[in-house]
Design brief:
single chain; mainly alpha; Clc chloride channel; 2 domains; two-stranded parallel ribbon; 16 helices; 2 strands; 1% strand; globular
């Protein structure tokens, strides 16, 4: 007589299959996470060291800024030789959502062009280049191992997080940023483990090569009471509107440059000339490059110029709008730190704490990544200011509306309700 499997037999079989699936996924993403972490950590360390070296050279040789238009022309030629003209962060975002992949030659193009921008005094950061480098490396790995589309999407996020981690020295924030930045209100849970593995591995590699992780010390953190909280709220609310102004300046400046100067060689040359003239006009080099040294100065001395945040917005909008390569996150942190410190000085708060609050609020507003902002604040400033920075990030996130650096960022859920946003 034929016997039928019992309920216990069926459950045992399902349990074994489930265990095999879990073990396979664990092994697969551990291996891929470590591989991409090792590669991105090495490349990221080289990139970070290069940016550090050319920044020191530019500081020692101020005349290099007069070569900025020449560097712009070199950037355009480089992108054309690598056949990635017009390719940027938008393509990275699309590669996570569609079958489109990032061209592997984007890596050398963005690496060298970002170094050129920093060497010659363009006002840009390094995260844009880091995200593009990471996605390009991940895309190459996907082709080598002949991975499926869904796997490549996760691998791309892991690559983005790994390069971000290597360059900034914030492994947890980098991993969460790669998960959170693609779609507002939605996180791919399947990518959490590989992103963490790749980011932590990359951080260890870059640390081994001597990349310095940015950390900022807040000397005196006040007690949490209504008097302090309202001051934090004021800075956060104002930061949301500064973020709107910054993003609007970036997008509109790019549109104006593209409309006035159809030829990209002319466009980037004019942009370089304007940056030179502005630098001479303000009679300081504080707004050239990323500006980490200015942020450090605020935390060390509490000194800040009240107009610094506005000038950085102008310098960065022109640099990026004209076509120079780099990123907007470090300028965002500069703007947040200078605005927050200036506002704190006016309302009677520790300038260093004000800078931390401003950095958290601005970063959250322009990236629409509240969880990343909170985690980054802990990695950058420690736990003492955690609640203040979290409040600032949440407040600015709510008030910044549809503001954002990345046009390709998809909004899945509303910031104000649980309503899902219909995509056109």
């Amino acid at each position: 007589m034929k016997s039928f499997p019992t309920k216990v037999d069926i459950n045992t079989k399902e349990l074994i299959q489930h265990f095999k699936a879990c073990a396979t996924a664990f092994f697969k993403w551990t291996v891929f996470g470590i591989i991409i972490g090792l590669i991105c950590g090495t490349v990221g360390a080289g990139f970070a060291k290069s940016i550090e070296a050319v920044t020191a050279l530019r500081t020692a040789q101020p005349w290099l800024i007069y070569l900025l238009p020449v560097g712009g022309i070199a950037t355009v030629i480089l992108y054309r030789l690598c056949r990635v003209s017009g390719v940027g962060i938008t393509d990275v975002f699309e590669s996570v959502r569609t079958s489109k992949s990032v061209h592997v030659t984007l890596a050398p193009a963005v690496f060298l062009s970002a170094v050129i921008t920093h060497l010659l005094g363009g006002s840009a950061g390094k995260e844009g280049a880091a995200l593009q480098l990471g996605s390009s490396i991940a895309s190459l790995m996907g082709k080598i191992f002949k991975l499926g589309e869904k796997t490549r999407h996760i691998l791309t996020m892991a690559g983005m997080g790994a390069l971000f981690s290597a360059v900034f020295g914030t492994p947890l924030g980098a991993a969460i940023f790669a998960l959170e930045v693609i779609s507002v209100g939605h996180i791919c849970s399947a990518a959490i483990f590989p992103c963490l593995v790749s980011s932590i591995t990359s951080y260890c590699v870059s640390s081994f090569f001597g990349v310095h992780a940015e950390r900022f010390n807040i000397s005196a953190i006040p007690e949490m009471n209504f008097g302090t909280v309202w001051k934090v709220a004021v800075i956060a609310i104002c930061s949301a509107f500064v973020a709107r102004a910054f993003c609007s300046a970036l997008h509109h400046t790019e549109e104006i440059f593209a409309k006035l100067f159809k030829n990209e060689f002319l466009r980037i040359t004019i942009g370089g000339v304007i940056i030179i003239l502005l630098t001479l006009l303000v009679n300081t080099r504080d707004y050239n490059g990323g500006g980490i040294e200015i942020i450090n100065r605020i935390f060390e001395t509490g000194e800040v110029r009240y107009e610094a945040f506005l000038l950085k917005i102008i310098f960065t909008a022109i640099t990026v709008g004209a076509g120079f390569k780099g990123g907007e996150i470090v300028p965002t942190l500069f703007i947040g730190a200078t605005f927050g410190a200036a506002a704190a000085t006016i309302i009677g708060l520790n300038p260093a704490l004000g800078a931390a609050i401003g950095m958290s609020a601005l970063f959250c507003s322009v990236t629409n990544c509240p969880i990343t902002s909170i985690v980054l604040s802990i990695e950058l400033f420690g736990t003492g200011s955690m609640v203040f920075c979290a409040l600032a990030a949440a407040t600015s996130f709510l008030l910044s509306g549809s503001t954002g650096l990345y046009a390709a960022q998809r909004r899945v859920f509303s910031k104000y309700t649980e309503e899902r946003i219909r995509q056109k």
